[in-house]
Structures are given as C-alpha cells and as structure tokens.
Amino acid sequence: MGASKSSAKRGGIGSASTLRANSDFASARERVTKPLDAGVIRISAIQPGGISRSRFSIGLGISARGDVNAVRELILATPAIHFAARTHGSFDFIATVHGQVSSEVLATVESLRTLPEVAYLDSWTHLDLVKEGYARSVGHELRL
C-alpha cells in the first residue's frame, strides 16, 4: 500500500495526472480515428521536391495546336511529370519532369514531342529551388 501511495504522489502509474493524460490521449485518438475511418480526412507525408544529386529535374513549356486533350492525357498518364498546369500566355501547359537519370527525363520529353498536337516544346534546367511550400490540401486532383 505504501508504494502505491508514494507512486501516486510522484505522478506514477496510478496517479490522477497519469490517468488524466491517458484519458486525454484516448480522447485525442478517438477524435482523429473517427474522421479517418469515415474517409473525411487523410494523413499523409509530403516529400520535399527540392533539387538534389539523386534527381534530375527540368521544366517544360508546351504549346499545343488544335485539341489540347491528347497533350493533357499524356501529361496525366506520365509518372515522371510531377507538376503540370494549364496556362494562358506563352505556353498552353507548363510542367516539371523528374527522373533519377537524364535518360528518363529525355524519354518523357521525346514522348511529348511525338504528339502531333504539340506544336512547340521548350525546356530548361532547374538550377536552384527558390520557393517550395506545403501549406495546401493533399489529395485534390488538379484539373488541367
């Protein structure tokens, strides 16, 4: 009996503060688990897309002729294209292509160039990352 009283006084296993902490943890777990199970929220990690020695990155500017859907569909189906946007201005689309080696990136560029709907394709190398932010929602499909 003496050990449990002294344990409770020090905030040990049977103490009120430990029981309150366990209850708070269970309550927090329940508040997160319910929306997860219902599919309302999703927790995921976002890997930084910065420049590194193990990844080759280029930017693309794509001008299309006629119907742009073939270009859009190829962009959506190409895993090496990590970012793409439909634009108004010098290009119809801009995109970022990543690969472990330059030949992977070149294959993506060449597959785009073979489309008859691609009138012009410009490319550039990413030298330095100026801004990369993750304060956005995850899992929303971008409609090009």
Broad structural category: alpha+beta
The figure for the number of domains is 2
CATH-derived topology of the largest domain:
Alpha-Beta Plaits
Integer average pLDDT: 79
Q: Count the E strands.
A: 4
| CA gyration radius, whole angstroms | 26 Å
- Percentage of residues assigned to helices: 25-40%
Count helical runs: 4
Distance between the termini: 70 Å
Spans of at least 5 consecutive residues whose pLDDT stays below 50 are: none
For the largest beta-sheet, the strand count, sense and barrel status come to: 4 strands, antiparallel
Proportion in β-strands: 15-25%
| Assigned CATH superfamily of the largest domain | Lrp/AsnC effector binding domain/regulation of amino acid metabolism (RAM) domain
Q: Which term fits the overall shape?
A: elongated
The strands making up the biggest β-sheet line up spatially as: 2-3-1-4
- CATH domain class name of the largest domain: Alpha Beta
Topology:
Elements: H1 2-9, H2 16-37, E1 56-64, H3 69-77, E2 81-86, E3 93-99, H4 102-113, E4 118-125
Antiparallel strand pairs: 1-3, 1-4, 2-3
Describe this structure in words.
This protein has helices at residues 2-9, 16-37, 69-77, 102-113, and strands spanning 56-64, 81-86, 93-99, 118-125. Helix content is 35%, strand content 21%. The protein has 144 residues and is α+β, with helices and mostly antiparallel strands. 10% of the residues are buried. It has a four-stranded antiparallel β-sheet, with helices on one face.
Main attributes?
144 residues, alpha+beta, Alpha-Beta Plaits, 4 helices
